[in-house]
Write a structure and sequence with these properties.
Elements lengths: L1 H20 L10 H10 L12 H5 L7 E9 L4 H16 L6 E11 L4 E8 L3 H11 L3 H11 L2 E11 L14 E9 L4 H11 L9 E9 L4 E8 L2 H12 L4 H8 L3 E11 L7
Antiparallel strand pairs: 1-3, 1-4, 2-3, 2-8, 4-6, 5-7, 5-8, 6-7
Helix pairs in contact: 4-6, 7-9
Amino acid sequence: MAAARVGGSAVLGLLWRRGRSRGPGPARGYSGEAERSWFRSLFVHKVEPRKDAHSNLLSKKETSSLYKIQFHNVKPECLDAYNSLTEKVLPKLHSDPDYPCNLVGNWNTWYGEQDQAVHLWRFLGGYPALTDCMNKLKQNKEYLEFRKERSRMLLSRRNQLLLEFSFWNEPLPRQGPNIYELRTYKLKPGTMIEWGNNWARAIKYRQENQEAVGGFFSQIGELYVVHHLWAYKDLQSREETRNAAWRKRGWDENVYYTVPLIRNMESRIMIPLKISPLQ
């Protein structure tokens, strides 16, 4: 700040001397008010008020779906038992029409963080549906016993509530076999709108092989986090599909403008569980 004051004073002094050297005359000199106005312009930045939250600007309007993603870090010796328990209990819970919740996908991480399970749910009706579902699960004895048994197998767990980008594909069930890539981007605060604007133009470059599954951004949990979910037949198909995108004019611009927005990024390659609607 001291450097700014010194620099500003030096510039003002230069302007004053120029005004004096040009002689008298109102048209050629600098008034004190003009100097003060110019000086203030160096430091004052006008911020236009936002009219809406970025969640309303970026999410789909035709639905009120809310998504929950869970990451379970499983004890290595318990992963098979964890998968068996999950595949036994979760389908029963989601067969009940009273629960306003759809299972979107279930995976184990293959490359990335090991001995990890990833689950994705959709709540039809937003936050009220989430609350309704949670209240009903608290009264479900089978679910409570499932949680108790599952807890013995876990090292840690975390979740996020997500909204879906308006321009991304709907994550619909698909037949396999596929591998899935979950690319997670942690953005600089304040950059979500810019990210969305760039990807709204760029997602068309990633549709030829139907690899785009879904795109989400966090609402609760760690904020300014974006998840992109992709499907490929295998790792070679992933490599070929990603290389093909670089040959399309416009894809490089998206990368150029979005990379500076990222603080951190991570890629998981995941294998679906038997019960996952995304195979």
